[in-house]
Amino acid sequence: MERHFNLVIIGAGPAGCTASLYASRAGLSTLLLDNGAPGGKLIKTFEIANYPGVPTQSGVDLAMKMFEQATSFGALYEYGDVMEVTEDKVVKLSDGQEIKADAIILATGTKERLLHIPGEQENIGRGVSFCAVCDGAFFKDKDVVVIGGGNSALEESLYLTKFANVTIVIRRDVFRAEKSIQEQVESNDKIKIIKKHIPKEILSENGKVSGIVLENVDTKETQILSCSGIFPYVGQDPMTQSIQKLGICDQRGYVIVDNNMETKIKGIYAAGDVIQKDLRQVVTATNDGAIAAQHIFHELSK
């Protein structure tokens, strides 16, 4: 039997949780779906220090508070692996379920981008990790390499120093991260920095990462850096596989929305990191979720 909700939200990160809070408080029957633990990337973030009004705390703690509030006004949360969203607002799940909605918010976020170099794919989970918070403790007193020069790379490098010795590798000769984070990294004795190099191959022995081949971007000379862990932070790609047939994404796969977070298909919205925008932060994701849910409430009230 097909179920029906006023609003189905796909993704229980900050955008999805905020939308759930606003929609359920407004009296809309709301279903919050996710194919993982609620919280999105918050649960993979060691520390959040730039969410207004909230003192510095772990990403997991903030995620749990958001989720508890998101479901406190009657919204239903379920595990669900969404395979397809149709133009007539039917959500098709991998288990064969089909859920009808008056409106849908896609808040699926992004996934970490791979390096696409030899040795990477086969060593994921064997030394290659995309989550320092999840796996950092496995590298106690060992050497690890972080690839990337943005905020995420440097923040996770700082976290990893609780367990390991860290080398950061960046393509350029300057970081892209905020100045305050750069200063923390540069003053940390457990962090080394290799500039103007790119990863070319991940090496392994006995089924585990043993090192990485780096190439100088100017001279093309290579060197082998011994390590037990590699943490790539080289960007993200939107998780929009379920809406590929709808024609509402840009060339990079991000969803195109208007000021109300609505796509060109009436009743289908998107919010958070998955949409086409310049700044992807917790605070901007919550903003998107609130706008989308409030607009849906007004539209369904007409």
Brief summary:
The chain has 302 residues and is of the alpha/beta class. It contains six helices and 16 strands.
Count of separate DSSP helical elements: 6
Structural class: alpha/beta
Task: Characterize the overall form.
Answer: elongated
User: Describe the biggest sheet?
Assistant: 7 strands, mixed
The CATH homologous superfamily of the largest domain: FAD/NAD(P)-binding domain
Q: Roughly what fraction of the amino acids lie in strands?
A: 25-35%
Overall helicity:
10-25%
- The CATH class label of the largest domain is Alpha Beta
Number of strands: 16
Rg over C-alpha atoms, rounded to the nearest angstrom: 21 Å
Distance between the termini: 28 Å
Number of domains: 2
Instruction: Pick out the low-confidence regions.
Output: none
CATH architecture of the largest domain: 3-Layer(bba) Sandwich
Residue-averaged pLDDT: 95
The ordered string of helix (H) and strand (E) elements is EHEHEEEEEHEHEHEEEEEEEH
Q: What's the CATH topology label of the largest domain?
A: FAD/NAD(P)-binding domain
Structure description:
With 302 residues, the protein is α/β, with parallel strands linked by helices. The protein has two domains: 3-111 and 236-301, 3-Layer(bba) Sandwich (FAD/NAD(P)-binding domain); 114-232, 3-Layer(bba) Sandwich (FAD/NAD(P)-binding domain), CATH 3.50.50.60. It has helices spanning 14-25, 59-70, 132-135, 151-160, 179-186, 282-301, and strands spanning 3-10, 30-34, 76-79, 82-85, 90-93, 98-106, 110-112, 143-147, 165-169, 191-194, 197-205, 208-216, 222-226, 229-232, 236-238, 268-270. Strands 1, 2, 3, 4, 5, 6 and 16 form a seven-stranded mixed beta sheet that branches. Helix 5 (179-186) links the parallel strand 9 (165-169) and strand 10. The protein starts with a strand and ends with a helix.
